[in-house]
Amino acid sequence: MRFVLLGAGVCGLSLLVVHGQAGVPSSLPLPVLVVVAAAAGLAAWWARRSWWPLAAVGAVTYAWLVMWPPLLVASYHAGRTLTRSRDVAAYLGGCLVACGISAVVSEWQEFETAGPGNALVMALGVVGLPFALGLLVRARRELQKRVEHEHVMRAEQARAQERARIAREMHDVVAHRVSLIVLHAGALEVRAAEEETVRTAAMIGGIGREALADLRDVLGVLRSTKTDDQPPPTLSDLDRLLDQSRALGIAVTRHDEGEVRPVEAAVERTAYRVIQEALTNVHKHAADARTDVRIRYGPDELEVEVRNQAPTAPRQELPGAGWGLVGLRERVELLGGTLRSSAEEGGGFLVCASIPAALPVAVDRRPA
User: Fold this and answer.
1) pLDDT averaged over the chain?
2) Which of 138, 160, 233, 362 lies in disulfide reach of 237, CB 3.0 to 4.6 Å?
């Protein structure tokens, strides 16, 4: 829109100049002057793609009729866009030639702009000042980009330092505690006399070692911007997760409904995390409760549901951060889905997530 207004302004102002309203008379017929002014306006409108036609029209009309608006606008664009010294020299040289021809034509036709002094003032006003203004605008634009780039780099540096600090805290605290669990589980496995205790200790040690491996991967992501080569878990890894829960004494049953088909990788990852977090809550609050894991493949969405019954025996609840379901809800809503959790009659609990099978274009599909 602004280039349309620019073209209209150049056309109108050029017509005023060549029609004698700015001290430059012309003996050409009015229709010819209108055509010349319209050509200048069209070239100014086209400057949004290329300003060289405007420069050519400006040079010709200035040398012929001392019509300065096209050359003035072209000089401003030249100052904003030309970066190489060769191009700047070529443009300014062409403008000097046009101004020289204009001075000769003005002297011959006895225009009011005739004379070396007037020609010099016109050249400075039509070429020099607009060109300098374009240079100033370009310099300010480049300075602003440089400042924005520095702000981005500082923010990236601050994020990297914070990620490194979190990685150190996780390594010094969490990894140390999990390592102790693995060591005690190994010692219990060796010393225990009962076969049931040996199996439980071995299972605890295996889960602890897997947790250490996952923690090592997380620390690697925090300390580096490189993508992890190991793919994140999806629904194809769900049976292994359910077997771990069964080994801990939970009666877990899987139900698949609908036509099983591949969906977006981000959708599968999120569905897996929902089931994982729901089973973790069952371990914490109702370890011996019967649990049903249901996966429904709808035409446009994937729905996962984890429903556990009331525990048959009281259990001391394990500590937790309290942010599991909150984080899951944010993760599901990021994909355009919904997550709900509620207590069931009789003491059970339900976690249900519905995720669109096809993701919006703006969703980040990188592994998470």
Assistant:
1) 78
2) 233
Cβ burial of 312 (10 Å; 0-12, 13-18, 19+) is: exposed
113/161 Cα distance (integer angstroms): 66
The pair of three-digit structure tokens given for residue 265, joined into one six-digit string? 């990788």
Work out the average pLDDT over 114-141. 78
- Ramachandran category for residue 346: left, alpha or beta (phi over 0 → left; psi -120 to 50 → alpha): left
Q: Which range has highest mean pLDDT (5-14, 51-60, 136-145)?
A: 136-145
- What pTM did the predictor assign? 0.43
Per-residue pLDDT band for 107 (boundaries 50, 70, 90) equals low
Going along the chain from its start, the domains and CATH numbers come out as 2-144 (no CATH), 252-356 (3.30.565.10)
DSSP 297-364: E-SSEEEEEEEE---SS--PPPP--S-HHHHHHHHHHHTT-EEEEEEPTTS-EEEEEEEESS--TTS-
Three-state secondary-structure class, residue 26:
coil
| Average of per-residue pLDDT across 13-22 | 67
Per-residue b or e along 168-197, where b marks 16 or more CB atoms closer than 10 Å to that residue's CB: eeeeeeebeebeebbeebbebbeeeeeeee
Rounded CA Rg of the chain: 38
CA distance 66 to 127: 13
The residues, ordered by sequence, that sit 6+ positions from 249 with a Cβ below 8 Å of its Cβ are 287, 288
Residue 351 and residue 250: Cα distance in Å, rounded? 17
